[in-house]
Design goal:
- Helix content is 42%, strand content 15%.
- The chain is an alpha/beta fold.
- The two termini are 28 Å apart.
- Bound molecules: ligand TUI.
- Ligand TUI binds at residues 22, 45, 72, 96-99, 117-119, 123, 138, 144-147, 228, 230, 277.
């Protein structure tokens, strides 16, 4: 059975994380993933602290398994979200879009494991030194806010530079990606886009349909000049962002255009002007499934594939 260091460290059955996604991974998705043996993660995004508290409480009602909360560190009221998480107590926190170093001691004092998402070796080393329990090395194939390095390149380099477990993220949606990540030295995987197209995910059906319809070249990175590049499915809004880049517009113009766009995608399903964050692997996802189907299939097919690997690498074929 596929089991790794990270499973023992977190008390989970399978080394499969569901990426924390703002406006997309609430307690329903997170508890379904945890109940299926993975690590479900509530995407706090820009939730007010009171809503995050409610989400954590509902997750606890819906699963007795470990789950996590993902915090976006560049928010100006991040300290309030950190306080809410510490007050409620959750097993795991993952962090994105910033340096988790300042918060690790407080989380540890509250018995919370900290797993920063990192886009570079330099940050990986800093986070290990600051006391992180594990790392999620995320490639630029991912959806949402991204770094520059591909999963194939970042994972083995991070693995070689730290002594804590590394989870691979970006461009993984089936058993081949899972097996590849293990071959690169990862102790587990994180998937976001695959879990967007599940029955338990709360996003508007239009978002799921766009993922299922997407092909390999249907995502684009916008917002590079702001320092917060995001990968989204191509649509009219993405085009408007690209036009801003062409005009060398000030950052304030991007901020103005970006207001409320995740809600427009997730709640309203506005295919023209919503921000439909998605990874490049969307092209591989052909149907909506239940969380359980995704996890059971990932585990059984990856096990089969790894057990039969010698056949695929025979020098006679
Ligand atoms: O955080 C993510 N993905 C996200 S956050 C998000 S919400 C958002 N909405 C609108 C605009 C921007 C974001 C949607 N998707 N992934 C983890 C991640 N973290 N990717 C890259 C990083 C990262 C980048 C720079 C982590 C640390 C860092 O530098 C820290 C430092 O201080 O050096």
């Amino acid at each position: 059975m596929i089991k790794s260091l990270i499973c023992d460290k977190l008390g989970i059955k399978y080394p499969i994380f569901q990426g924390g996604m703002a406006w997309a991974s609430n307690y329903v998705l997170a508890s379904a993933v945890s109940n299926a043996g993975g690590l479900g993660i509530i995407g706090a995004g820009q939730m007010p602290p009171e809503l995050l508290v409610q989400e954590i409480r509902k997750a606890k009602e819906n699963t007795d398994k470990p789950f996590g909360v993902n915090l976006i560190l560049y928010l100006d009221y991040i300290d309030e979200l950190v306080d809410a998480v510490i007050q409620e107590g959750v097993p795991v926190v993952t962090t994105g879009a910033g340096n988790a170093g300042h918060y690790i001691k407080r989380f540890h004092d509250a018995g919370i494991k900290v797993i920063p998402v990192i886009p570079s070796v330099a940050l990986a080393k800093r986070m290990e030194k600051a006391g992180a329990d594990a790392l999620i090395a995320e490639g630029t194939e991912s959806g949402g806010h991204i770094g520059e390095i591909t999963t194939m390149a970042i994972v083995p380099q991070v693995v070689d530079n730290v002594g804590i477990p590394v989870v691979a993220a970006g461009g993984i949606a089936d058993y081949r990606g899972f097996a590849a990540a293990l071959c690169l030295g990862a102790s587990g995987i994180q998937m976001g886009t695959r879990f967007l197209a599940t029955k338990e995910c709360c996003v508007h059906q239009n978002w799921k349909a766009m993922v299922i319809k997407a092909s390999d070249r249907d995502t684009v990175v916008t917002g590079r000049p702001t320092g917060h590049p995001v990968r989204v499915l191509k649509n009219r809004l993405a085009k408007m962002f690209i036009e801003l880049e062409g005009k060398c517009s000030p950052v304030s113009e991007y901020e103005k255009l970006g207001v409320g766009r995740l809600k427009a995608a997730s709640v309203d399903g506005n295919t023209e002007t919503g921000s439909f964050m998605s990874g490049q692997i969307a092209g591989l996802i052909k149907e909506e499934k239940t969380v359980k189907e995704v996890i059971v299939e990932m585990v059984s097919k990856t096990e089969d594939f790894i057990n039969n690997m010698p056949k695929f690498v025979s020098s006679n074929t």
